[in-house]
Design goal:
The complex is a heterodimer of chains A (338) and B (285). With 338 residues, chain A is an all-alpha fold. Chain A is built from 14 helices and two strands, in the order ααααααββαααααααα. Chain B has a single domain, classed as ABC transporter involved in vitamin B12 uptake, BtuC, CATH 1.10.3470. In chain B, strands 1-2 form a two-stranded antiparallel ribbon. Classes of the chains: A mainly alpha (338), B mainly alpha (285).
């Protein structure tokens, strides 16, 4: 594994705090300075950032590469849409959103039980999840009555937030969906940071570095993997829920392309860094909106090539590289390296 | 009686396809531990060779002859540039070859467009077998698979090159110490595997839909065949191919083919839980 420098920089320096606060301020003030279209776009990128973050939790911190992560993003979105359709009363949005988190978590629990307790790890896990993505995509298309098949799911009542019956506000509104995405991003990032710094996070790191040794030390490896996998997939489900007011529920959400995209975002941003997931998702998606309309095919080709280059030469991604350079600069200042 | 015979032949022909697609993968992935997620795209490239020959007005046989060479060269280039530098980072090999599969799909899309391509039919008509008519081409595929399997076993167990591969699998550093050029063994094993799956794609091309995304389904099925069959034995592929192909054919008899394929994936996952070592046993790599 080349994800060497995964432990967060020991002293989170003043610079980091300043950058974090500045980014948060920018996010909060963004709707005041941008058009609705741009706000919608950034909201969508943030949702993708949460999705990428959830992959980074399992990939960067426990070494489990999930090639079917889109299953859980899509499951969240579909569960939300189907529940909205089935529950036509005020306040149903909350139940639907909860369902959109719990259903993927349950799915992950079942899937993880079979795979982790079957000792499917490393590359095998990647391959099996890839096969399951294909199966999940087919399930969506085959069950046209429930999911709308190839056409995607639509015709559900608009999700509303606020206090049911008293003060309701449409989730479709650009600012509302944007701020839910911001709150979700900050919340998920805080939760993830706490999780990886906890004792549980240390056990995860031990498993990532050497599974056998962690097992010899008495850790229940499949159980720990199952727990983090379920948490991560619930988070992916949450990003799917947050995506519903912004995007369109279509089978593409569960497809292989979506699973591949999220891998690219995390790899580019830097795996095992948490914030890198957001940086990668924002950067890649921003570039995509700049370029892709004219050259969809060429864009994907470039993404593929770039992905290969990142994996070959730049395994820490942007954040990994930045940390590396920062450390070098510090060491140089101390006169420890030429 | 007729449905039984036809179903058996269907199962056998699906199994042959799966075995042909998985055979190379079993050696490079199951034994040498080299991961190639672009395996499905190599299959796709093989099918496009035949489609290109057809589009140029040549006999499809030219496409079938060209496919192993073209795909073998692509595989050789991929092994040299992408896989070799990542030898000690298996998870990164997984990712880099995944990137390669995206690139190959898009290159094909740029050249040929996203639409379907047609491959000219090679052998038409049906042959009477046990008194029942069955498409001759499917029987041809079963025979070709049998021949390829025979050749592979011969290469693996009876040739010097097969001996070197087996040495590298048994103990890479010891093989190196005894003078086996492990890197060139890897390269040739990978090239042969690529050529084989390209040939499989070419042979299959008249029967299937040819488009840039076709490789994905074959990729996951091939990996499942190898994992289910059991890693570390060449005959695991045959067990896995027969099991998965038989299950697909049997389920397709009652259900839609799509549903059958979904069910097979789930059965495979459950099977992995029950028998992690695969059908033929052996240690897990």
């Amino acid at each position: 594994m080349a994800t060497a420098t995964t432990s967060p920089a020991p002293a989170r320096p003043l610079l980091g705090r300043l950058l974090g606060s500045a980014a948060l301020l920018f996010l909060l003030a963004f709707p005041a300075i941008a058009s609705d279209y741009e706000v919608g776009l950034l909201g969508k990128f943030l949702v993708f950032g949460i999705f990428a973050l959830s992959l980074d939790l399992i990939w960067g911190f426990s070494g489990v590469v999930n090639f079917g992560h889109a299953i859980f993003f899509g499951a969240g979105a579909y569960a939300m849409g189907i529940l909205l359709k089935a529950l036509p009363f005020a306040g149903a949005t909350y139940i639907a959103a909860l369902g959109g988190v719990l259903f993927p978590a349950l799915l992950a629990l079942v899937m993880g039980y079979f795979l982790f307790y079957g000792r499917v790890s490393g590359v095998f896990f990647g391959v099996v999840t890839l096969a399951l993505t294909g199966a999940a995509h087919s399930i969506i298309i085959v069950n046209g009555n429930l999911t709308g098949g190839m056409n995607g799911l639509y015709g559900y009542p608009p999700p509303t937030l606020g206090i049911p019956g008293l003060w309701e506000i449409s989730w479709y509104e650009a600012n509302v969906s944007y701020y839910t995405a911001v709150i979700g991003s900050v919340g998920c990032l805080a939760l993830s940071r706490w999780l990886v710094k906890s004792d549980f996070g240390r056990a995860l790191g031990a498993i990532r570095e050497n599974e056998d040794r962690a097992a010899y030390l008495g850790y229940d490896v499949p159980q720990i993997k199952l727990i983090i996998f379920t948490i991560a997939c619930a988070m992916a489900g949450l990003s799917g829920v947050l995506y519903v007011p912004i995007g369109f529920i279509s089978p593409d959400l569960i497809g292989v392309t979506m699973s591949a995209s999220v891998l690219v975002w995390v790899a580019v941003g830097g795996r095992g860094t948490l914030i890198g997931a957001f940086i990668g998702a924002l950067l890649v998606n921003y570039l995509q909106t700049l370029l892709s309309d004219a050259f969809v095919v060429l864009w994907l080709l470039l993404v593929g090539l770039f992905f290969i280059l990142v994996v070959l030469f730049w395994p820490g991604g942007i954040v990994g590289l930045a940390r590396h350079e920062w450390l070098r600069a510090r060491l140089r200042a101390l006169g420890l390296v030429p | 009686m007729e449905p039984v015979v036809i179903q058996l032949l269907n199962g056998l022909s699906i199994a042959s396809i799966l075995i042909m697609v998985s055979l190379g993968l079993a050696v490079i992935f199951g034994m040498l531990g080299i991961i190639n997620l672009a395996h499905g795209e190599f299959f796709m490239l093989g099918a496009y060779c035949v489609a290109t020959a057809t589009a140029w007005g040549l006999s499809p046989w030219w496409g079938i002859a060209a496919a192993p060479v073209v795909v073998g060269l692509v595989g050789m280039a991929a092994q040299q540039t992408i896989i070799k530098p990542l030898y000690r980072r298996p998870l990164d090999t997984l990712l880099a070859t995944w990137g390669l599969s995206i690139v190959l799909r898009q290159v094909v899309r740029l050249i040929y467009g996203s639409g379907q391509m047609m491959a000219g039919s090679l052998i038409t008509g049906s042959t009477s077998l046990f008194g029942f008519g069955y498409p001759t081409y499917r029987l041809f595929i079963i025979l070709v698979t049998a021949a390829i399997v025979g050749l592979t076993f011969l290469l693996y167990f009876r040739s010097d090159f097969g001996l070197r591969i087996r040495m590298v699998i048994a103990n890479r550093s010891m093989a190196g110490a005894l003078g086996v050029n492990t890197q060139s063994t890897d390269l040739w094993a990978f090239t042969i595997a690529a050529a084989m799956v390209g040939f499989a794609g070419a042979i299959m091309s008249p029967l299937i839909v040819i488009n840039p995304d076709m490789g994905l389904t074959y990729l996951s099925r091939a990996f499942i065949v190898v994992i289910i069959g059991g890693i570390g034995h060449l005959y695991g592929v045959i067990a896995g191919g027969v099991a998965i192909g038989g299950a697909e054919a049997a389920l397709s008899f009652y259900l839609r083919p799509v549903v059958a394929q979904i069910l097979v994936v789930f059965i495979a996952v459950v099977l992995i839980r029950i028998r992690p070592q695969g059908l033929t046993g052996g240690p897990r790599g």
